[in-house]
Specification:
This protein is mainly α. It contains 27 helices and five strands. The chain folds into five domains: 95 residues; 106 residues, no CATH class; 109 residues; 145 residues, Glutaredoxin; 108 residues, no CATH class.
Length: 624
């Protein structure tokens, strides 16, 4: 009996000693090590994916997913931030591999493991709402531009919003919407690791970036793939006591957008453009012109003789006569500036933050004939070809509505030109558009590129962006130019026909009205499916849309440009198809757009709410 009593005491002491050796600190360190191991494994899986070893990448991802589930089930609040990052990476990896045809175990929503503070993500004080275009972009351009906009140091580019949100090739995402503390961008700025050299981000600028991420890291005012240097609008150019902009009445003898904007865009942009303008005076937009620079407002409405702008143009002000290094403006042109200021310096354009060059383009369009616009687009297309593919022989073919340029055979260009005309005719019927009032005046350009390398170089050189690896085509539309780009390499004739139809549908929708990219892309793909293009793969397409929706962190990610373009286009397709289920509302929306009504207001009129609110309802219906 005494032996059993002593043995029991001994066993208890052994167990107590064992438990004391596993301290809370040791447990925490072990869990951090597990997260680090998962991060490294995800990086290895990514490398395998890029090398084309999808099977091994999928095998490794399954192992990581098991490790994640075991660790997340412990619900350790100290690991919440790190586990959310791992979960984001796993979701994106899931989408990529499943698009390659690999079946993976379902990835449970992060809410099943961790508490999500939705109030933190959605909190927005409208009086302090941060604009990406007006507040954030100028900071990124000014502090990070030379290394991560003009170049991609460390394999990280922020040349566009899409690039910024895509993150670094090696380190992954650098911004997590709603979580400034968990965002790598904020971390390296707070520690001073970036920007390199003697650069420094001021405390107020850092606070702005933090608030923008806190409010959801949203995009406003431009496309996700628009170069940041083109959309940056400094926020500190305003002057105390500055006279507000006045809208033109229509009775003025000099119209700014028609007669003066082209002069400023062509003669002054070199020194006073968007990037580091001299004396902090920029004419890149009317708003920046009106705000002035280091010397104050350049215009005194009604008083041309007291306006610095006129004095500089005439050479009567201290310093150089403007434009510097060029011949002075003709007397009659300066007189137009004087008359414009005498009549109040009023603005007659659609948006005082529109690029000055765009205002000039609109002025050209207001008076140009269809033939003149077609000639201008031919000139632009030729320049784009030599910029994107210098030294590469180009074949040309023209049809009624299209100019085709390509490094393929003349026969192929003619065949695609005929296909394009047939698709355009079908789109005109589908959208009930008048045949004598095409939504795109002047010939649209279609670039036909033989190799993936050619397609990639076009994106880098002409559009200043990296094109998605699997993308076979895309379109671009602006007031002055409208074009589609097709990559024919490794593409069957049937696939090429579908890709061509999608791009032309995008151009058609964008020509109908000024609409957001998600709507144009989604409606274009829906229209092509309705026309019978791509119907055989509808079942596969539905699965791809479901996977893309599952990859979103927030229901409006595809509306705000916070996800890769290929996945965003799939979600847009599904969402617009959902909107079209109510034909009465959809038909009314198209009717309002036909009338030239603004998209956001028209959408609210027809659907009674915003796209973001409907998207939240739509995603909530999905069984994911």
């Amino acid at each position: 009996m005494r032996f059993h009593w002593r043995l029991s005491i001994y066993l208890v002491l052994v167990l107590l000693t064992s438990f004391r050796s596993v301290t809370p600190q040791a447990v925490a360190e072990d869990r951090k090590r597990q997260i680090k191991d998962m991060d490294q494994s995800i990086a290895r899986a990514g490398k395998l994916f890029k090398q084309g070893d999808f099977q091994e990448s999928a095998r490794l991802l399954r192992e990581i997913q098991v490790q994640f589930g075991q660790l997340a089930e412990r619900r350790d609040p100290t690991l919440t931030k790190a586990l959310r990052k791992v979960h984001k990476s796993l979701k994106r990896a899931h989408v990529r591999l499943e698009l390659e045809g690999f079946k993976l175990p379902p990835l449970q929503p992060v809410s099943d493991y961790l508490p999500i503070n939705r109030e933190k993500v959605n909190a927005r004080d409208e009086s302090e709402k941060v604009s990406f275009q007006r507040h954030v972009t100028p900071i990124l351009v000014g502090r990070c531009g030379s290394c991560h906009i003009d170049e991609s140091r460390g394999q990280f580019s922020m040349a566009t919003f899409a690039d910024l949100m895509r993150g670094s090739v090696g380190a992954g995402l650098v911004i997590f919407a709603g979580e400034p503390q968990g965002s790598r961008l904020i971390e390296v700025l707070e520690t001073g690791d970036m920007p390199g050299g003697d650069g420094k981000v001021e405390a107020a600028e850092l606070a702005t970036l933090r608030r923008w991420i806190q409010q959801g890291a949203r995009l406003d005012g431009s496309r996700p793939d628009a170069p940041l240097r083109q959309v940056a609008v400094p926020v500190d150019l305003g002057q105390a006591g500055q006279v507000p902009t006045q809208r033109a009445s229509g009775q003025e003898s000099v119209r700014f957008s028609v007669e003066l904007a082209p002069v400023l865009a062509s003669r002054c942009d070199r020194c006073h453009g968007n990037a580091n303008p001299r004396n902090r005076f920029s004419v890149s937009t009317f708003a920046r012109l009106w705000a002035g620079g280091s010397s104050g407002p350049p215009v005194r409405p009604g008083r041309p003789e007291e306006s610095l702008l006129i004095a500089k143009l005439k050479g009567s002000a201290p310093g150089q006569r403007m434009p510097a290094g060029q011949n002075p403006l003709p007397v009659e042109v300066i007189r137009k500036f004087e008359t414009w200021i005498s009549e109040g310096g009023r603005f007659d354009g659609p948006n005082d933050n529109s690029p000055m060059g765009q205002l000039a383009d609109l002025a050209f369009l207001s008076s140009a004939t269809t033939e003149e616009l077609a000639e201008k687009r031919l000139e632009t297309a030729t320049q784009n070809w030599h910029l994107g593919l210098p030294g590469v022989h180009v074949e040309r073919h023209q049809s009624r509505n299209f100019l085709l340029l390509g490094n393929v055979s003349q026969e192929m260009l003619m065949d695609l030109g005929s296909q394009a005309e047939m698709v355009w005719e079908k789109l005109t019927t589908y959208f009930k558009w008048r045949r004598d009032d095409t939504p795109n005046r002047g010939r649209m350009t279609i670039y036909i590129l033989e190799k993936r390398y050619d397609y990639s170089e076009f994106g880098k050189m002409v559009e200043q962006r990296e094109l998605p690896r699997k993308q076979q085509g895309h379109w671009r539309h602006s007031a002055m130019d409208a074009y589609a780009v097709l990559n024919t390499g490794q593409t069957s004739a049937t696939e090429l026909e579908v890709v061509l139809a999608q791009q032309l549908a995008g151009l058609f929708v964008s020509g109908m009205a000024e609409v957001p990219e998600w709507f144009a892309e989604g409606l274009a793909r829906t229209a092509v499916s309705s026309l019978g293009k791509g119907r055989p793969r509808m079942k596969k397409l539905d699965a791809e849309i479901h996977r893309a929706v599952r990859s979103m962190d927030q229901p409006d990610d595809f509306l705000e440009g916070r996800m890769p373009a290929d996945a965003s286009h799939l979600v847009s397709h599904g969402f617009v198809t959902f909107l079209m289920q109510n034909r009465r509302r959809y038909n009314r929306l198209i009717h309002l757009l036909h009338q030239g009504r603004e998209f956001s207001q028209s959408f609210r009129t027809c659907y009674g709410t915003t796209p973001a609110q409907i998207a939240q309802h739509w995603v909530g219906q999905k069984p994911f």
